[in-house]
Design a protein that fits this description.
By secondary structure, the chain is an alpha/beta fold. Helix content is 37%, strand content 14%. An 8-stranded parallel beta barrel has the order 2-3-4-5-6-7-10-11, surrounded by 4 helices. Strands 1-9-8 form a 3-stranded mixed sheet. α3 packs parallel to α5, α7 packs parallel to α9 and α12 packs across α13.
Amino acid sequence: MKRKDKGRKIYKTKEKNYYDKSPVVKFMSNLLTVLLIGGIGFIGYSVAGPMIDFSQHKGDEPVEPSTYEPVETTEASETSDIDTEATSESKTKNEIGYTAAVIDEEDMTSLKTLQAALEAVPKNKGIEYVEIPLKATGGEICYASKVDKAEKAEAVKSSLTLEQITESVKKSGFKPAATVSTFQDNILPVKFPETSYWTVSDNKIWFDKNEKPWTAPYSQDALDYILEIISEIFSSGFDKIICSDFTYPEFSERDLENLEERLSQSDRFMSLTSAANLFYDVIISNGASMFIEVSATDILSGNAEILQPMILSADNIILNINLDELSRGVSAEHTFYEFKGSSSEKTDKCLGFVSDKLSDFNVSVRISGESLTTEELLNAKEVIADYGYNSFVIG
């Protein structure tokens, strides 16, 4: 039976209307409350007495009305301290103190272009780290990797060594952080098709609408490949590694009918979280820290399957608010999110929609968009403090 299309909601503003109760309604409400409390007390007394009598055997001593020792003041104080600590922990959950700027992939072609990009990073803006794209979305390796599969797949697109990169970043007055795209890799499967998705009917490699293959998160060869790259990175002095693209391609209904059954199941996110936990364990055990970058667009459209706080080891999330993407609007199943106004207004509205979905994580907010100037990006990030975030990434 074909499901009736209810149409799509369009979110343009966030407004709430509050209506006060009339005096008559308030009086009746209070009267009913008093009667209800009195009724509950009478019923409780009526029921409790017979139950106590019934529970006592013949010959038992009567139950005293009060037999417990009063709680000492020190215990109450300790409980208060625990509550205070919990409140304090809640308030500081997002205070991870990570501030960074991002270098573009195009800046990684030579030492000269890298140094020029580092010179352009704003000074005296509270930026501590510079994020270097070492494995970019699409699969390009932006440094002189020695990983065998990377060389054979011709994924290496730069002659810069990791030592040159870290030295240049430190000389510019910043600390190096590495970004690694995980499964949106269209290069590796061309040479190593076993790392990709396969069709069931004809046993062929699957291609997306742009005729590109992707690496699958349940492919052991794909996992090993990413781990080799991560190992090269933390061995070269990077103490923070940001992993992105924990996502599946946009499969059509027809695609899902011709792919493995696991891709149509509601728990398919387990492959993504298992991969993320594997990377996390390796990174943490080698003295570095791991962030997971998630697109705000993916959260709005319902494609951020990686956000599973109960089973995800990494709790440091970078929320990427791409203002160019938001300007085009975001479609969900029956909803269209529309963003207009200044960069700050778009950022504020986006955070209003997605912040609740990130309440179990430590969040850094990344403001990005190729059409915006650095100054516009810096202005837009000012609104994040209203949501309790003090960690930011620009670019």
